[in-house]
């Protein structure tokens, strides 16, 4: 219980790290994850810190590694992920590693650049061959159809004439041919038309096979075009336009032989290029494969190294510059581990002077550390979501382990549903080591992380389901009902007696739609059902009235017990923080206020249950009226629950009324008295009563330390804390607000617990509706078709049960249970103003590639 | 637009507005600038920018880092964001975006033509072009020899085409003419953009019109200032002024007559908005330049644009603020790399 009941004791330790061994020491600490570093250079901006150069070097290495990973992924080489994470590299190896990586990068960049160049060359050659092949047909076509070139609008007849003239002359006729991106063809043509005013002929055809762009890897469709023009000026313009549209222009052969020659030359060159390219790719693959083996460990190592330097940046140098001083928070229980880690680090680096540590007293509030295991983690998370507990205060998570599933189950009481939930959670728990569950999607992971909560919620739901006797909205008759219908027919009485007692005969049964069992008739009610609600209520028409009364009272009782428990936990807090006066002036009046009003209500409920039986039920007074009368003092005395009730109630009311002013004024006045009578209490005493979180040991420790070291800085801080302003108005204000909140809260919070009743009612009714609307319909059809119908009906029933009743209703009950804990329970004692202890641990670094690449 | 357009605004543009507001929140804060100014080298700047929303945008740059590398990467980042907005926009917001790019397109065209005049290769100049104003036909600009050529051959299908109505001429494109062309284009562009915003109505008009009016007036002032001592005639000068500003018409006429800075200042004195700006301009060395004062005013207006909801002005304002931030970073980086730290603090803070 110890570790979960309160957060662990922390101490502030000063580490003196010899500058030669600091790195190794931190590496050892990081592996263990023991301590949280404090930033001692807060006002130094990030680039002015000591180890900025080393951090930069790590970033450079990370950049290279990211590049390697990217190249390896592109080459589809699997990246092996190591099982164990390698330790941070020793300083001597870092240089070596850096050199090695840099060399690798340079090599890789060169090879890829070569490869890209080769591929680009190859692409150009291929494009050229394509172009030659396609344009051959153009020229033929041009020659054949020239006189009746249809694509030209008739307007340009004169220019066509010009063109043929020029061709006949054979002067200055030029061709530009090449490839153009598919999307740009239209704009290209338009621009050509506008600029050259029609003095060009463009022909183009789509290339059958799309080509891959070597730079982006995109597959693009190309068009081959051939522009015939004449005149040098127009030629210039055409070329410029081609440039503008990023056309790949290739020289156009004028004669057939030339074309053939070029084509042959191209073919051989393409062959050569292919072989060279293959060789380059093979080599590249080899390099990458070799790199892939060590990349994982390098990535982890660099990450660790960077983390270490970030931590070192938080340390300050001592005057001689020979050793680094770090301030860390460390759990007291782990101090010897910390020492050992330091020794290990020093030994590893072979330093002559070992690094050492000493604890220093502090006034600051340490961070909160509550060690959890896989079972308690989920419950701790529920509490932490409200607020991380203040240092050393009572941790509600311990009690939440039981109360949370229980309150949930009160709202979710159905042992069929509970059992399904339990099975699901059990499945998760049994397979918790399955790797796929750990890396599943967000929603699934949410269920997975709360698997133990779910497990307990399911179990408790089975229990409350048994109490409510509810299984998929039906009751189970395990022990035989305590009610007997046949006793109503009892023939041992005379007809007159029968009429008087309300017994049944044939005519009564035949003419009444609703029959009522009377428990006061002997033999009808044979005693309570052994566990929970009698199954016969499932058939009764007044079932709801009965259950409502039961559940309402139950939720009030549970709620008041829960809240009272919260107030009692507050006493533990006051005891621990040595503020006994808080117990007398705050907790006790609070308890009295609560118990005198609502405790008495519980008493009345239980009293009425026990004292009144079936025979006397007609004279039983209403609890509601009695409770209201307690405050109103009616003139006419009613016959109450017991004799002397009026006096008891008046006494309780008096106690309640008295506790209110104590609650309002007690603490402020006491503190004022303490402040004024400070001289007789001694300096240190009054100091620490004002400061909440220091225990006596710390104060004494501080005193001795001060004398020993005379550490000015700490002393100053201490003085400052002591002279904390005593502001009576503020204390009074806080206390008044707190008291008003508490007194009103008692009433509204009790009402709030009625949600237990409301939700359990809603759940029961919803499952009842589902049953009547679906399964009953299926069961009513006669047997021949019924079987066929029942199958889909049951399937639908199952689906709706899971989605509406289990998931939706479960979620709503879960949220309400959370609310009851956060608001109604925890505001009675829990401050939740702490900060979480975040140790410097390598385990918190992610060990995945995806993060580096992104 | 219908009355109460804010009811429907979020249907079409709500996502983008949310996004742009988020982006605006990522602008560098005063503290960031203070830290940046303290940097010793460009590497420090890089490290500091890593802690801001720029993130690892320089991570893949090989050493050594230069100011221009930082600049291009920042521009790329802005361009990515802008393209994202633009690709996800619906009418009429997409038209609004097109209008926004037009000013960059004009600058690019002029830049290319100037380059062609100085016989520089297109590729060399393309690098300097603003990525927001890129368009396919851009590279063919140097084919043209006269403005009408330019229009007919190259720009007729671009969004710039409507702005050419005033500047069709057969003059050859020398340096002065290019500058005239730029100003004329800009004038028609501003007027068209202003009309678009005015017609759109609603909050967009309420926000964008003052910004554009200011932009127009600023151009008028700058044109005047730059024309002192050049061969530009006063009549010509007047034709270059955008007419959608607060100065129109009397102020522009007076400006056209102005002959030196003091006369210009006297014109500005008639206007409550510009008087304080001119008063803030320092004399000679040490004080702020007119340009800086205008920039500050612009930043102020753009920041204020974020105080209202359901309008397109936020996109304009964000782009302008981001540009100002980039100018600031470049300024600081230049000061650092040239070891010229005395003026490092004269960046324009974005409040």
UniProtKB/TrEMBL annotation, chain A:
Give the signal peptide as a residue range, or say none if absent. Answer: none
What keywords were assigned to this record? Coiled coil, Hydrogen ion transport, Ion transport, Membrane, Transmembrane, Transmembrane helix, Transport
Q: Give the source's domain of life in one word.
A: Eukaryota
Q: Which residues cross the membrane?
A: 406-430, 451-468, 554-572, 584-607, 651-674, 785-808
Q: Which residues form a coiled coil?
A: 94-128
Report the main location listed first in the record.
Answer: membrane
- Membrane-topology annotation of the record: Multi-pass membrane protein
**Function (record text):** Essential component of the vacuolar proton pump (V-ATPase), a multimeric enzyme that catalyzes the translocation of protons across the membranes. Required for assembly and activity of the V-ATPase.
The protein, known as = V-type proton ATPase subunit a
Q: Which organism is it from?
A: Felis catus
Mind giving the lineage of the organism this protein is from? Eukaryota, Metazoa, Chordata, Craniata, Vertebrata
Automatic annotation (TrEMBL), chain B:
Provide this UniProt record's keywords sorted from A to Z: Hydrogen ion transport, Ion transport, Transport
Q: Does the keyword Ion transport apply?
A: yes
Quaternary structure (record): V-ATPase is a heteromultimeric enzyme made up of two complexes: the ATP-hydrolytic V1 complex and the proton translocation V0 complex. The V1 complex consists of three catalytic AB heterodimers that form a heterohexamer, three peripheral stalks each consisting of EG heterodimers, one central rotor including subunits D and F, and the regulatory subunits C and H. The proton translocation complex V0 consists of the proton transport subunit a, a ring of proteolipid subunits c9c'', rotary subunit d, subunits e and f, and the accessory subunits ATP6AP1/Ac45 and ATP6AP2/PRR.
Record function comment: Subunit of the V0 complex of vacuolar(H+)-ATPase (V-ATPase), a multisubunit enzyme composed of a peripheral complex (V1) that hydrolyzes ATP and a membrane integral complex (V0) that translocates protons. V-ATPase is responsible for acidifying and maintaining the pH of intracellular compartments and in some cell types, is targeted to the plasma membrane, where it is responsible for acidifying the extracellular environment. May play a role in coupling of proton transport and ATP hydrolysis. Regulator of osteoclast fusion and bone formation.
Q: Which residues form a coiled coil?
A: none
Cross-referenced PANTHER family, in alphabetical order?
VACUOLAR ATP SYNTHASE SUBUNIT AC39
Task: Choose one Gene Ontology CC annotation of this protein and give it.
Answer: proton-transporting V-type ATPase, V0 domain
Q: Does the keyword section mention Ion transport?
A: yes
Q: What is the name of the protein in this document?
A: V-type proton ATPase subunit
The entry assigns this protein to a family as follows: Belongs to the V-ATPase V0D/AC39 subunit family.
Molecular function as annotated in GO: proton-transporting ATPase activity, rotational mechanism
Q: Which Pfam families match?
A: vATP-synt_AC39
Highest taxon, organism lineage: Eukaryota
């Amino acid at each position: 219980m110890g570790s979960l009941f309160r957060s662990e004791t922390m101490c502030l330790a000063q580490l003196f790290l010899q500058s030669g061994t600091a790195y190794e020491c931190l590496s050892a600490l990081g592996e263990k994850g023991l301590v949280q570093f404090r930033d001692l250079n807060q006002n130094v901006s990030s680039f002015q810190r000591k180890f900025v150069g080393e951090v930069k070097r790590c970033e450079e290495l990370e950049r290279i590694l990211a590049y390697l990973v990217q190249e390896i992924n592109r080459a589809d080489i699997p990246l092996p992920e190591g099982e164990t994470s390698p330790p941070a590299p020793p300083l001597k190896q870092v240089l070596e590693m850096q050199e090695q990586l840099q060399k690798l990068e340079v090599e890789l960049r060169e090879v890829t650049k070569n490869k890209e160049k080769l591929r680009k060359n190859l692409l150009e050659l291929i494009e050229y061959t394509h172009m030659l092949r396609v344009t051959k047909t153009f020229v033929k076509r041009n020659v054949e159809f020239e006189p009746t070139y249809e694509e030209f609008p008739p307007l340009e007849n004169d220019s066509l004439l010009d063109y043929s003239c020029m061709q006949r002359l054979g002067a200055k006729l030029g061709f530009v041919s090449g490839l153009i991106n598919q999307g740009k063809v239209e704009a290209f043509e338009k621009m050509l038309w506008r600029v050259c005013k029609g003095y060009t002929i463009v022909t183009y055809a789509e290339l059958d096979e799309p080509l891959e762009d070597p730079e982006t890897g995109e597959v693009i469709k190309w068009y081959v075009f051939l522009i015939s023009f004449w005149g040098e000026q127009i030629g210039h313009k055409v070329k410029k336009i081609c440039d503008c549209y990023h056309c790949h222009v290739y020289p156009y052969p004028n004669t057939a032989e030339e074309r053939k020659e070029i084509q042959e030359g191209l073919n051989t060159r393409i062959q050569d290029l292919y072989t060279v390219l293959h060789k380059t790719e093979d080599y590249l693959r080899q390099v990458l494969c070799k790199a892939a083996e060590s990349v994982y460990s390098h990535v982890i190592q660099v990450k660790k190294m960077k983390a270490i330097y970030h931590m070192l940046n938080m340390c300050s140098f001592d005057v001689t510059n020979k050793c680094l001083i770090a301030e860390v928070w460390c759990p007291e229980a782990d101090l010897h581990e910390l020492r050992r880690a330091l020794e290990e680090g020093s030994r590893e680096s072979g330093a002559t002077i070992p690094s050492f540590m000493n604890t220093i007293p502090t006034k600051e509030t340490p961070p909160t550390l509550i060690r959890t295991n896989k079972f308690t983690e989920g419950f701790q998370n529920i509490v932490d979501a409200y607020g991380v507990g203040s240092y050393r205060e009572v941790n509600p998570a311990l009690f939440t382990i039981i109360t949370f599933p229980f309150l949930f189950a009160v709202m979710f009481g159905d042992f069929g549903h509970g059992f399904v939930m339990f099975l699901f959670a059990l499945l998760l728990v049994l397979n918790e080591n399955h790797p796929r569950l750990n890396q599943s999607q967000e929603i699934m992971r949410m269920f997975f992380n709360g698997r133990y909560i779910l497990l307990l919620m399911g179990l408790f739901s089975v229990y409350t389901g048994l109490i409510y006797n509810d299984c998929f909205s039906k009751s189970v008759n395990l022990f035989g009902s305590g009610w007997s219908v046949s006793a109503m027919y009892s023939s041992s009485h005379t007809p007159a007696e029968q009429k008087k007692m309300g017994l049944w005969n044939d005519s009564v049964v035949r003419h009444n739609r609703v029959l009522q069992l009377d428990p006061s008739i002997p033999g009808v009610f044979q005693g309570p059902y052994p566990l929970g609600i009698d199954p016969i209520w499932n058939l009764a028409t007044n079932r709801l009235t009965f259950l409502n009364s039961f559940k309402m009272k139950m939720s009030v009782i549970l709620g008041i017990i829960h809240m009272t428990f919260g107030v009692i936990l507050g006493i533990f807090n006051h005891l621990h923080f040595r503020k006994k006066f808080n117990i007398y002036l705050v907790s006790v009046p609070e308890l009295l206020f609560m118990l005198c009003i609502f405790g008495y209500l519980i008493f009345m409920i239980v009293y009425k249950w026990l004292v009144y039986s079936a025979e006397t039920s007609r004279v039983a007074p209403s609890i509601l009226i009695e409770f209201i009368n307690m405050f109103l003092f009616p003139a006419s005395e009613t016959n109450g629950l017991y004799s002397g009730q009026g006096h008891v109630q008046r006494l309780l009311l008096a106690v309640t009324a008295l506790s209110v002013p104590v609650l309002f004024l007690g603490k402020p006045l006491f503190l004022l008295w303490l402040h004024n009578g400070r001289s007789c209490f001694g300096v240190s005493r009054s100091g620490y009563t004002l400061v909440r979180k220091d225990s006596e040991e710390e104060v004494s420790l501080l005193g001795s330390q001060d004398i020993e070291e005379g550490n000015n800085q700490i002393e100053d801080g201490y003085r400052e804390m002591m002279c904390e302003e005593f502001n009576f108005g503020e204390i009074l204000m806080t206390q008044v607000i707190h008291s008003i909140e508490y007194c009103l809260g008692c009433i509204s919070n009790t009402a709030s617990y009625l949600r237990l009743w409301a939700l359990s009612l809603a759940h029961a009714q919803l499952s009842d509706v589902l049953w009547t609307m679906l399964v009953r319909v299926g069961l009513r059809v006669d047997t021949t078709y019924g079987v066929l119908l029942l199958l889909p009906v049951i399937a639908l029933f199952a689906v709706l049960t899971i989605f509406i009743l289990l998931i939706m209703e479960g979620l709503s009950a879960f949220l309400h249970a959370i609310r009851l804990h956060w608001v109604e329970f925890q505001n009675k004692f829990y401050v939740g103003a702490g900060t979480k202890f975040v140790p410097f641990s390598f385990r918190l670094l992610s060990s995945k590639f995806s993060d580096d690449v992104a | 637009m219908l009355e109460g357009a804010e009811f429907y605004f979020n249907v079409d543009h709500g996502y983008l507005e949310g996004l742009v507001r988020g982006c605006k929140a990522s602008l560098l804060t005063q503290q960031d600038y203070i830290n940046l100014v303290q940097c010793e080298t460009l590497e420090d700047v890089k490290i500091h920018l890593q802690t801001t929303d720029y993130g690892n945008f320089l991570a893949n740059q090989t050493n050594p880092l230069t100011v221009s590398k930082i600049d291009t990467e920042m521009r790329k980042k802005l361009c990515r964001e802008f393209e994202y907005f633009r690709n996800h926009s619906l009418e009429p917001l997409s038209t609004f975006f097109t209008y926004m790019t037009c000013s960059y397109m004009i600058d690019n065209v002029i830049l290319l033509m100037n380059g062609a005049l100085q016989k520089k290769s297109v590729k060399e100049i393309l690098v300097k072009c603003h990525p927001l104003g890129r368009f396919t036909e851009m590279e063919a600009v140097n084919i043209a020899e006269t403005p009408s050529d330019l229009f007919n051959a190259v720009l007729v299908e671009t969004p710039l085409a409507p702005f050419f109505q005033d500047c069709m001429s057969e003059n050859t494109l020398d340096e002065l003419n290019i500058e005239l062309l730029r100003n004329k284009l800009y004038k028609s562009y501003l007027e068209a953009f202003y009309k678009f915003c005015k017609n759109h109505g609603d909050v967009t008009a309420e926000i964008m019109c003052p910004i554009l009016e200011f932009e127009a007036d600023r151009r008028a002032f700058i044109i005047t200032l730059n024309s002192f001592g050049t061969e530009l005639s006063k009549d010509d000068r007047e034709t270059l002024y955008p007419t959608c500003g607060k100065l129109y018409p009397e102020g522009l006429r007076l400006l056209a007559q102005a002959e030196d800075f003091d006369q210009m200042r006297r014109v500005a004195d008639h206007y409550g908005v510009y008087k304080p700006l001119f008063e803030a301009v320092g004399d000679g060395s040490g004080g702020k330049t007119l340009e800086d004062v205008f920039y500050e005013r612009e930043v102020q207006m753009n920041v204020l644009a974020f105080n209202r909801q359901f309008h397109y002005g936020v996109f304009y304002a964000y782009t302008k603020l981001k540009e100002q931030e980039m100018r600031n970073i470049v300024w600081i980086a230049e000061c650092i790399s040239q070891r010229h730290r005395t003026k490092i603090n004269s960046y324009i803070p974005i409040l």
